[in-house]
Amino acid sequence: MKNGVGQKAQDIYKKKIFKRIVKIIFLLLLIVISIIYLFLYIVFQGGRFTVTLDKNLSNRKSIFLSEDGKFKGKTRELYANTVDNMDNISIKWLPDNLDTEATGAHNGENYIAYTFYVINAGKETVNYWYEIDVDDTIKNVDEAIRIMVIRNGEEVVYAKKSAIDGSAEEGTKKFVSKTIAVLEQRKKLKANAKDRFTVVVWIEGDDPECTNALLGGEIKMHMDITEEHIK
Fold this sequence. Notes:
alpha+beta
């Protein structure tokens, strides 16, 4: 009788230990999944395209950003929502009024379009650099990506160099490097003056590298603006 009771108690104890182990394993898995999700959220958060001013402490903070071009709406960082899915298109299919139709985000079905202003709110004339960086790519989708930058009505299209001979793709200016797509200097922006920018991103269907191998690809980019004072 005693042996039967002892065995039953031992079985109950083992079940309790087993349940505790299962709970601990479940909690550990939940923590691991949460960490992975948080990491992916930080890396690919919201699919946004950001425009940010240089955070260097030596920056004298004359340059500001604005979606509507008004001084009271000035900020040091802007966020543009992108499109979740993008099919390849031709540059010929883009609207003619991309630079004037709206401010802020005005995406189309298969392209990203974002218009904003760089404002010199200081008392001195300044130079500044604008740079668009490629933070991450999946399935080499950057091979067929096009970035159009329209500054005060002047349009330049940037693309990765041809995989065939290393030359610039037709009608484009080559990316500076694998991670830097655009790097340009704007000289002599006068006090209280502003520049209007429209940045457009799409997948160029006429690019020789635009093949089925890019299906499911992703790209993440951001734009930095760095102030440079004139001596």
